[in-house]
Specification:
Structural class: alpha/beta
Order of helices and strands: EEEHEHEHHHEHEHEEHEEEHHH
Number of helices: 11
Helix content: 25-40%
Number of strands: 12
Largest sheet: 6 strands, mixed
Number of domains: 2
Strand content: 25-35%
Radius of gyration: 20 Å
Bound molecules: adenosine-5'-diphosphate
CATH class of the largest domain: Alpha Beta
Length: 286
């Protein structure tokens, strides 16, 4: 479990997080959404121990990230948005780094590279940007680390690769693992990421599973029920498309981009209404 409690962080004199609270539970593929500059990358770096909180507590599977203990590092993998790869072959990279990850699986690496249609590279530094991304995603997802952090993973991937990535990611989710995907490309990750965490100017506006959310809100197209409380509305094909309070018959599956616009447009409503994402087991027993 990843527990972030009352965390403060600022760059020089500019505060970003003040009293940040967030809990991430194993068995989930979280989507961390936010506009550019919302604080997504900073949050990932805090979770990896690359930045230190200036107040509050942060625990990743009961360890303190900034101590960067070997057991912590071998149980976590970050695929940053920007990175470089060394001038070595893919096989040498694998043989050098795999021993750092006790749960690494060579078979999974081979399967993921095959899914991406990427032969084991002769020289990593000579790959295109998209091919480098495929290699690092395939490697990271093969480490068996319990905490995977992927920063804008679909940036730089072409259309077929985005589909291949979704398939690989879905195959890597298991009950012991937390996968945290930060993105502003919500369409690329639709129907895969859940629960959703929405960050805006360093504040968590929303942290909830789609199932919990759909129990309390409906996306309706066409005529709205009388007296419906509308939280966000657009016009599509001459008809109203609206997010309204309450569960209504005929509700459409929730569209993440629409949810994002609704939440960032009415943060005060959702911040007050949204309970923290719950453990699916707790939900099942509720
Ligand atoms: P996101 O990943 O959501 O785009 P970031 O976490 O990269 O957001 O940035 C959040 C805020 O912190 C932005 O205002 C950004 O300008 C600022 N910031 C990020 N990195 C630094 C840095 N190294 N020094 C100073 N300010 C930074």
């Amino acid at each position: 479990m990843i527990e972030i409690h009352d965390v403060n962080f600022k760059y020089l004199k500019k505060p970003l997080f003040q009293g940040l609270d967030l809990t991430l539970r194993p068995g989930n593929l979280y989507g961390l959404l936010g506009k550019n500059g919302a604080g997504k990358t900073t949050l990932l770096k805090l979770c990896c121990g690359l930045l230190y909180p200036q107040g509050g507590t942060l625990r990743v599977f009961d360890r303190v990230p900034h101590l960067r203990q070997p057991a912590f590092l071998s149980d976590l993998f970050l695929v940053p948005e920007e990175f470089s790869l060394p001038a070595v072959s893919g096989a040498l990279y694998r043989d050098m780094l795999a021993p750092l990850y006790p749960a690494f699986s060579r078979q999974r690496l081979e399967a993921h590279l095959a899914e991406f249609e990427l032969p084991m590279p002769d020289r990593l530094d000579r790959l295109s940007h998209g091919q480098k991304k495929k290699f690092l995603l395939a490697f990271g997802l093969s480490t068996g680390a319990r905490f995977l952090l992927l920063d804008e993973p679909t940036n730089g991937l072409d259309i077929p690769a985005k589909g291949q990535f979704r398939k690989i990611l879905a195959s890597e989710l298991d009950a012991d693992r937390v996968i945290l995907v930060s993105t502003h490309q919500v369409r690329d990750m639709e129907h895969l990421i859940d629960p959703i965490v929405i960050l805006d100017s360093g504040r968590i506006l929303f942290s909830q599973s789609m199932e919990d959310f759909s129990a309390h809100y409906s996306l309706l197209h066409g005529e709205l029920p009388p007296g419906a409380r509308v939280l966000h509305e657009e016009h599509v094909l001459g008809k109203s498309l609206a997010l309204v309070e309450g569960a209504h018959p005929g509700a459409l599956p929730l569209d993440l981009e629409f949810l994002f616009k609704a939440v960032t447009g009415r943060p005060e409503h959702f911040a007050a209404a949204a309970p923290a994402a719950r453990d699916p087991k707790e939900v099942a027993h509720a």
